[in-house]
Specification:
16% of the residues lie in helices and 40% in strands. With 284 residues, it is an alpha+beta fold. The longest helix is centred in the N-terminal third of the chain and has 25 residues. 35% of the residues are buried.
Length: 284
Amino acid sequence: MKKFLFAVVAFSIAFSISSCKKDTAETGPGAIDIEFDNIAVVDGIQRQLSLVTPGSASYTYQNGMGQDFNINLLRYYISNIKLEGPNGELFEDHVHVDVSGTEGIYLVDESDLSTGVINLEDVPAGQYNKITFTVGVDEDGVQEGAAGGVLDPATCHMFWNWNSGYIAMKFEGQSPVSNGGTSGGETVDGTSPNGIVYHVGGWRDMPGTAFVKNNKTLTFGFDTNARVEKGLQPRVHMVFDVLSLFKGQNMIDFTGNHNVHKPVDGQPVAENIPAAFAFDHVHQ
């Protein structure tokens, strides 16, 4: 009988230890994906964004002034991602820049859909219901010196040599109302009769100059918690309505300032960026 009781006690202790280890493992750090889906909202309906070949006269979209346009290129930086939860949960994505590579700064390129999913690892276990991020590359990323990875000027094509700063968002396309004369584009140039180019950036304010800070830091709440723990990898789905860049707070006229390469000229488009991004849903 004593041997039986000893065996039962020993089994209970072993089971308790095993259960504790299992609970600890399951509640360890996990991963979470942040997906940026570029869309066009037409008549209140979300449609997947469509790129066309440079020079195309097929116009799919309209700006807030009813002017037709299409899109050849869309690219933007996401950085300084922070997640928060209702019980004090906090995760801040580490940003590190050097010549060997870049951490915590991501380049979303519509021509490569895989770039739209940002995987964050070693996120403390918990429930998260808020995200903050910056559209653009702030001063720290600019001041770190030579950069590799997505900040390498030779491969990202998002760097302004004339002001040693990064373009936050690059948009290129065509509109039949444009009189051309564009310059410095990847897909359109001065020979493109209907080109529109918006290279929007600016990481500092310098009153009285062409330098303004156009990087935007945005915060969004979720309608449900994203549960993070070991073995679980939820996905937060964000959408970016490209049409909102050219309507709303600032109506953009493609017959006028359609060749943007300076921060001050890009300010009207930059002021439309916050309304263009939105939280959509959480995949658990």
